[in-house]
Write a structure and sequence with these properties.
The chain is of the alpha/beta class and 366 residues long. Helix content is 42%, strand content 10%. It has an eight-stranded parallel beta sheet. The chain has a two-stranded parallel ribbon with strand order 6-8. α7 packs parallel to α8 (179-195), α8 crosses α9 (232-239) and α10 (267-277) runs parallel beside α12 (300-310).
């Protein structure tokens, strides 16, 4: 019994660095805001990341990074990519979220041409409708993420399939038109990732599958096409304990918010519906705040304010989609804006604390 106790204590201090949860109540406002930021590291920061990004990680003022194919394509070998990720994670005294969109099929950063195994789309697996096959391909993806040191995957997509949908249906990113089949295969994707210690983020809440526009480029209104069944996968998987985190959709849905705010910026959808009605208590990730459905309509500063007030915990800035006047967004840019909003009384410290505590809990499970 004595040795078991010592092992538990040793594991605690190894996994959770000093000050990780014990000092959470006295961490600075800058740290708390910084942990709410997910940032793309940019195309020129592959071998030696921008010093300001490294400094922010060291200061606990950047909660996570987002990798794209450009970060992988420029690497001479997988070993160099692993070295980069290991270096960044070692700089963090709070565990660093290292994230990627690795759905398989067309949304696939770890391509065969870089030496990774072939993957297939969600639609392919849904049509095949064999959970063993879904497990096989999901295990491959999750195992590769583990080997690289990536601990968060923005998958599975739990939108319903609609072949006319530009961003999802036409790219075969959804399993099925039937929510029951979506649930069945998403459950296996989540199970495979959990086995290899990788967190999953279900997307895109409250349902992007029937949209007629792509929110990367335009305001996307699903009010006429959205159906209640599109939230069934979230409800069922949440009830089963299979939801690590959820990503927002930049879609307008008057059935849930008659003010016509995109879901990412809507308190009625993110807090009143997702948290209060459905009962989700975990971390809410925004979709990329640089997508034009948000950035072009609301601007940089206002969209940050609205997303936090809506209930979003982690704000994602990909540094992948150009924004007017901003070649590279850095943590300090976002921290300064949010800190000023707190000082001006537009966002309460309690609201920041709520997200910070959810993020810490999420990180404890890594």
């Amino acid at each position: 019994m004595k040795y078991r106790f010592l092992i538990v204590v040793a594991c605690y201090f190894f996994v959770f660095p000093k000050g990780f949860s014990q000092n959470s109540k006295i961490d600075s406002l800058e740290v708390k805001i910084g942990q709410m930021i997910m940032l793309g590291i940019g195309k020129d920061t592959v071998i030696q990341p921008n010093n300001e990004i490294v400094a922010a990680i060291k200061a606990q003022q950047l909660g996570g990074i987002l990798l794209y194919e450009k970060n992988i394509a420029q690497e001479a070998s997988v070993q160099k990519l692993k070295k980069l990720i290991t270096m960044l994670r070692k700089e963090a005294s709070l565990p660093l979220l290292v994230s990627i969109d690795e759905e398989g099929g067309k949304v696939n950063r770890l391509k065969a041409k870089y030496g990774f195994p072939e993957t297939v789309s969600a639609k392919y697996l849904g049509d095949l409708d064999d959970v063993a096959s879904t497990k096989y391909f999901s295990d491959i993806i999750a195992h590769n993420l583990l080997l690289l040191g990536i601990n968060v995957n923005y998958a599975p997509v739990v939108d319903v399939h609609n072949g006319e949908n530009p961003p999802i249906g036409k790219n075969e990113r959804a399993f099925s038109t039937n929510p029951k089949d979506v649930i069945k295969h998403a459950r296996q994707v989540i199970s495979s990732h959990r086995y290899f210690g990788v967190k999953t983020v279900l997307k895109h809440f409250p349902g992007h599958g029937n949209s007629k526009e792509d929110s990367h480029y335009n305001v996307t209104d699903v009010s006429k096409y959205w159906k209640q069944k599109e939230v069934f996968p979230y409800v069922k998987l949440l009830y089963e304990g299979n939801v690590d985190a959820i990503m927002t959709a930049h879609i307008v849905n008057e059935k849930l918010d008659d003010s016509k705010l995109p879901a990412t910026l809507s308190k009625k959808i993110m807090t009143d519906y997702l948290r209060d009605d459905i009962g989700f208590e975990g971390v809410i990730f925004s979709d990329d705040m640089q997508m034009k459905a948000i950035a072009n309509q609301f601007g940089f500063e206002k969209s940050i304010e609205m997303a936090i007030l809506a209930g979003v915990d982690v704000l994602m800035f990909s540094n992948h989609i150009p924004m007017k006047g901003r070649d590279m967004i850095l943590p300090k840019d976002i921290i300064a804006i949010v800190k000023q909003l707190v000082e001006d009384g537009k966002i309460s410290k309690e609201r920041i604390d709520a997200s910070y505590q959810r993020i810490l809990k999420f990180k404890e499970g890594l």
